């Protein structure tokens, strides 16, 4: 079996979640690499949308930022933030990829502050497009590079981006679009989904060598565990080859 | 149709539709005369202490870096800022010229958090109000439309709404909850474009970010342009005009004006410069040294270009992708 | 003295009202001809805006409609209705030219129906951009080709486009922008303005051979008359030459 | 923040944001397959009796005339319509296919009132609600943004507001009165463009009217295009894409598709044809004769072109201005 690092694994797991012939709203980093890999593997007609206006780029070359020229190279449209966000707001975007410093059991995310609002203990970047994606995409997928009790928390210091808010029916009660919300969480320990009834986060698959118990212990809130927890397949030789040779040949990220 | 919720964030700039109308009516000159001037003149004339200032697009991408550096050189103080940004906002914050920030995202994407933002906000020096990226842009859009607010379904149910100054109401047509965003009229906006004529008619290649909206949402507009072209050329393709001249107050010729950021189809971002700044920005003294070298240490953008070096800039040109 | 017809006179009178270095929102017909003439006479830097998105066209050739290609030939921008209307809404447009089947003493206009709303006795075109222009332009100028009691009426059958509504303060009370409103009415009998205090229509100038009394008699509402009513100068030889040779050489309108 | 005034006009299409979202989620196919089809197939598939239909731009200017004629040939009934229009709306009204109209302006500009509109509305056959031109377009814009309403300062104080279904509220930020316009989501839109690829990525030259907004405000979108070009060509200039393919359901190749209207940089309007129709339209029988000849009397757009005559069309091409 080929050797691989944690980042490569995360990228492959995220990539497999990308569905062909859908629109996925992504940011820089792992989601972008995952999208690029997916377009070269199973999802050749994946439309990748960037918040600054690039939609449907070829992704031949890896962008360094959500607005750089590679995000609209051979794209179907290069418009602006309004058009991109409004495309999401009116229901055209299936998947949104998110990240955060903290996530809670309903998939709500914090990327704003640690500590009180102002002045904060740690000032984080802010919502950016995350709140918009979390509000409007049909399904959101959170990428959490480090799964531990400081990041998978009982209570967020700041609720930047809506997941299922306070549980079943609360998104709709807040005025968010029906039938939308968190779908998956990809962490360095495994893949989580959400219990349909309670809307609480639930462990679906662990990474090779990781036990369900470990995931539970590294989560501050009570993590639900599916009856039969599966295992994420490690990156295949083909995935790694394409990732290393075609997606990120300059080793910018991996 | 009562107001269900009101964000507790400070409204750093009130949505004064009538005031904006009166201002542009009185000040916007429709004369077809050249607005070409140096960055010194443009900033001296059109940026004032205490102004609410906006920059477009985004730190490493088609950003008005040369004009931003001039704003810092002239020490314009007590600015209120809207970001969205990376390098340009970092510099303004590092120079301690900013009182408050309507913030959606200030960071270095994959390279992480802005140390300068952290120091500025965690110390209590700079006040903040938080918004989503869509929300900030729609606030420009409302101003560009000439209306006091605009609805969105973003921000509902979150602290992002709570710490903004948005409001939630019930839609009088559908009964659903809707966020209302106050229009954001800027005092001054800086926009860097691919080409402009001397009157200020502008074209932009590639994504337009929020140039369309911001150009229409500001009282004063400084354009920097990679290239100054004949008016006849611009007028040949009026559907490609992003900003017509009557919105513009100053046109500054600024080749490589987005450096160290990129300019699509022109030059690639200066990754080495950016990464080195990112490292230096972690330290207060090194940040000052950067400002001393690249901002205060040069008289103008011409000198900046010489300092960076034309060979390096030519190399960045060779690295940018085509169509 | 050169001979001229009524349309030519109207065009010249309207043209003289156009101020250089301003933006004027015009429709087809007399306002467009007047704008074209003004650009070739005293107002070379007049920016002419058309509602479908053409702003600042050269007007070398006379457009046949507000959206045809001549409305954006060598223009400073060719955008769309939203941009054009929003430019007016946020206060960038000095003059708006209007017309109508009926006008009242406050300069309100009807271009919607004669008779009741539905089904009407006569269905007119509707507002089009007129209501927007009447709401947002700083000053509006109405062109009324035929000045008679059926057109200058006590009460409109339908108030399509706001003038001074019901008198002083009523625009502001309705929510319309301060310091905006009707400025002039150009008819085949003369030019009217508005009394500053009462906001009522007032005769300023008659056309040659027309008496103030005639204007009053051809107006259903009580027309105010300025103390010293002037006379509109007839078209000059130069105006007529440019109008006939350069503005409308194909005799589309005149 | 109470509702101060409510227009009494009928709301012919409710601003159902959630319904629209669900619909596009379920039906919009993102597959990169050719959507090229005949106008017969496009209309049969994507226009239904009772649909709320919109056409862009405007009767004599870049109007989807060939598709409109096909809608009439197929006798799609009980349409609700939004106009803004001249020739295209006149034809649909003359063929008696329309139940109701959101109207801002239907007439022949300098040539005056539409006799066909008069007969349709004065007889009580067609119901109307009135709006300003800005208001109609902003209603599309609201739908394109995915929000249930949008504010404007148009229509205040007038019967235009009274006979619309707009509402007036007090702005919760400034206290000023504001008109709220309900979003207008179309069932089907017809847009004629200069060029499209087979997937539906579209470019438009010259003014864009309300193509951007309408393309984003409709459930089903039929594009007719003067030219079908390679996808690579379109993708080379993504900033010139007005409509990306995932919004589009059908692409119909329709050279001279705007005839008798103009198509900027391609062909001038057929003034003789238009004036003759305008005269005929004053008489019911002559209007029928026109429909018999130019709509029912031809099988498709190809036959229409032959009927009009290629010499005549070439002459119109020679009359159009350049850049």
What can be said about this structure in brief?
Chain A is built from 7 helices and 14 strands. Chain A has 254 residues and is α/β, with parallel strands linked by helices. Chain A has a single domain, classed as Glutaconate Coenzyme A-transferase (3-Layer(aba) Sandwich).
Outline the fold blueprint.
The complex is a heterotetramer, with 2 copies of chain A (254 residues) and 2 copies of chain B (323 residues).
Chain A: H1 6-16, E1 23-25, H2 30-40, E2 47-49, E3 54-55, E4 77-78, H3 81-89, E5 95-98, E6 102-103, E7 109-110, E8 113-114, E9 122-123, H4 130-136, E10 139-144, H5 170-174, E11 181-187, E12 190-194, E13 201-206, H6 212-217, E14 224-231, H7 237-247
Parallel strand pairs in A: 1-2, 1-5, 5-10, 10-11, 13-14
Antiparallel strand pairs in A: 3-4, 6-7, 8-9, 11-12, 12-13
Helix pairs in contact in A: 1-2, 2-7
Chain B: E1 3-6, H1 17-27, H2 39-46, E2 52-56, H3 65-73, E3 79-85, H4 87-94, E4 98-106, H5 115-122, E5 127-130, H6 133-145, E6 149-152, H7 159-162, E7 167-170, E8 177-182, E9 186-196, E10 202-203, H8 211-216, E11 218-228, H9 231-236, E12 250-253, H10 271-280, H11 284-296, H12 301-308, H13 310-319
Parallel strand pairs in B: 2-3, 2-9, 3-4, 4-5, 9-11, 11-12
Antiparallel strand pairs in B: 1-7, 6-8, 7-8, 9-10
């Amino acid at each position: 079996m080929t050797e691989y690092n944690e980042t490569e694994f995360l990228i492959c797991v995220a990539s497999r979640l990308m569905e062909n012939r859908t629109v996925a709203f992504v940011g820089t980093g792992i989601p972008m690499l995952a999208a690029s890999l997916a377009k070269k593997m199973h999802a050749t007609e994946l439309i990748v949308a960037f918040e600054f206006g690039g939609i449907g780029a070829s992704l031949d070359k890896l962008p360094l930022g959500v607005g750089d020229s590679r995000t609209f190279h051979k794209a179907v449209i290069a418009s602006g933030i309004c058009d991109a966000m409004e495309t999401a707001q009116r229901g055209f975007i299936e998947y949104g990829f998110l990240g955060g410093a903290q996530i809670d059991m309903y998939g709500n995310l914090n990327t704003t502050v640690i500590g009180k609002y102002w002045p904060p203990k740690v000032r984080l970047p802010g919502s950016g497009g995350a709140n918009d994606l979390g509000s409007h995409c049909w399904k959101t997928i959170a990428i959490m590079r480090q799964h531990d009790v400081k990041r998978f928390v009982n209570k967020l210091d700041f609720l930047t981006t809506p997941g299922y808010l306070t549980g079943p029916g609360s998104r709709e009660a807040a005025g968010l679009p029906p039938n939308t919300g968190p779908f998956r969480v990809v962490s360095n320990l495994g893949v989580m989904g959400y219990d349909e009834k309670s809307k609480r986060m639930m462990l679906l698959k662990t990474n090779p060598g990781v036990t369900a118990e470990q995931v539970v212990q590294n989560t501050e809130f009570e993590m639900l565990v599916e009856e039969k927890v599966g295992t994420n397949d490690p990156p295949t030789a083909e995935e790694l080859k394409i990732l290393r040779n075609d997606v990120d040949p300059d080793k910018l990220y991996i | 149709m009562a107001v269900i919720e009101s964000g507790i964030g400070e409204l750093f700039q009130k949505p004064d539709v009538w005031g904006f109308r009166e201002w542009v009516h009185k000040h916007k000159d429709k004369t077809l005369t050249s607005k070409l001037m140096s960055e010194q003149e443009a900033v001296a004339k059109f940026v004032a202490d205490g102004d609410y200032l906006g920059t477009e697009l985004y730190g490493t991408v088609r950003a008005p870096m040369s004009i931003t550096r001039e704003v810092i050189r002239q020490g314009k103080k007590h600015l209120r800022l809207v970001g969205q940004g990376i390098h340009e906002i970092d510099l303004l914050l590092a120079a301690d010229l900013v009182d408050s920030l309507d913030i959606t995202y200030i960071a270095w994407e994959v390279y992480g958090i802005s140390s300068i933002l952290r120091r500025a906000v965690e110390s209590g020096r700079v006040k903040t109000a938080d918004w989503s990226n869509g929300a900030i842009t729609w606030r420009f859009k409302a101003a560009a439309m000439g209306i006091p607010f605009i609805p969105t379904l973003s921000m509902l149910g979150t602290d992002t709404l709570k710490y903004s100054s948005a409001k939630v109401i019930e839609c009088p047509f559908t009964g659903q909850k809707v966020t209302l965003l106050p229009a954001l009229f800027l005092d001054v906006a800086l926009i860097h474009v691919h080409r402009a004529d001397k009157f200020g008619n502008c074209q932009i290649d590639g994504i337009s970010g929020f140039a369309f909206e911001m150009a229409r949402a500001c009282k004063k507009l400084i354009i920097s342009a990679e290239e100054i072209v004949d008016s006849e050329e611009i007028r040949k393709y009026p559907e490609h005009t992003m900003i017509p001249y009557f919105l513009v107050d100053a046109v500054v010729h600024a080749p490589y004006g987005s450096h160290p950021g990129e300019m699509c189809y022109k030059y690639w971002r200066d990754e080495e410069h950016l990464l080195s700044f990112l490292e230096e920005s972690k330290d207060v003294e090194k940040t000052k040294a950067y400002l001393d070298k690249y901002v205060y240490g040069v008289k103008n953008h011409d000198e900046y270009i010489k300092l960076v070096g034309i060979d390096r800039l030519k190399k960045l040109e060779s690295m940018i992708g085509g169509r």
